[in-house]
Write a structure and sequence with these properties.
The chain has helices at 48-55, 82-91, 108-118, 123-136, 153-165, 183-198; strands spanning 2-15, 20-33, 37-41, 63-70, 73-76, 93-96, 171-175, 202-206, 219-222, 238-239. Helix content is 30%, strand content 27%. It binds adenosine-5'-triphosphate (ATP) and magnesium ion (MG).
Length: 242
């Protein structure tokens, strides 16, 4: 089943200081099926994070389509109403950025449990599952009830991952989620992603060290700099599954 069909998606920024439009990425096209893992590659500043932000609709794409197959039918992420995007973020599309946004006076456990509460699960279940996810990533139990603002970078990222992965999703967006993790937490993440993939979750990931997720990758999308002459990103879209 096709989960996402991206067609000639582009994002340009207007930079006021220089009064110019700058392309983050241009003409990106690819198709993603259930249970597939797409690795996005390319040099710094080529638009990898911007592409993920456009699919999560933190940024509005400048052109093109991103047709997502939701449980309620097909929806173009490039044009969907904000209210639909809020629903998709709650129940269908998960996003892991490199950094946690801690909230004042919300404990690590409550931050992780929150996505399940928003989906209507009872408090007991949400807390039990949250403990299970924090344990899986190796966050020491004595700080589960503390506020993550003072946690180390790696500890914050464990909370971030647990929060992003606890609720069932159709599509997961992962932007360098392993950057601040120790080897054990990286292994736990790869194992969990493998389980989600086996259940049909589609994933798009940017990894500074793709060898971390070598066993998960089905396809690669190489983004070329907009001024490199290659205007059609995604042509190198290669099946590396065999
Ligand atoms: N909000 C913004 N306003 C203006 N320009 C932006 C904005 N966000 C990103 N850009 C620009 O878009 C380009 C792509 O940035 P992006 O963060 O997507 O790159 P990346 O491929 O993820 O790089 P890295 O490998 O360093 O993480 C950069 O030139 C960046 O300066
Ligand atoms: Mg980036």
């Amino acid at each position: 089943m096709t989960i996402l069909h991206v067609h000639e998606l582009s994002k340009r920024f207007h930079i006021h200081q220089i009064e110019r439009e700058v392309a983050a990425f241009d003409w990106v096209s690819f198709t993603l099926h259930a249970g597939e893992f797409l690795l996005v590659r390319g040099p710094n500043g080529v638009g990898k994070s911007t592409l993920l932000r456009c699919l999560y609709r933190a940024y509005v794409p400048s052109a093109g389509q991103a047709m997502f197959t939701s449980t309620a039918g097909a929806i173009d992420l490039a044009r969907a109403a904000d209210v639909d995007i809020m629903w998709l973020r709650r129940s269908e599309i998960g996003n892991v950025s490199q950094f946690l946004r801690p909230r004042p006076r919300v404990s690590a456990l409550d931050l992780v449990a929150e996505p399940l509460l928003l989906l209507g699960h009872d408090w007991e279940t949400a807390q039990r599952e949250a403990r299970e996810w924090l344990a899986a990533f190796g966050l020491k139990p004595e700080i589960w009830s503390a506020y993550p603002a003072t946690f180390s970078g790696g500890e914050q990222q464990k909370v971030n991952l647990a929060r992003a992965l606890i609720a069932p999703r159709r599509l997961l967006l992962l932007d360098e989620p392993t950057a601040s993790l120790d080897a054990e937490a990286r292994a736990a993440l790869v194992e969990r992603l493998g389980q989600l993939k086996a259940r049909g979750v589609a994933m798009i990931g940017v990894f500074h060290h793709p060898e971390d997720v070598r066993g998960l990758i089905d396809n690669e999308l190489y983004l070329a700099p907009p001024d490199s002459g290659s205007r059609r990103n995604g042509e190198e879209y290669a099946n590396v599954a065999e």
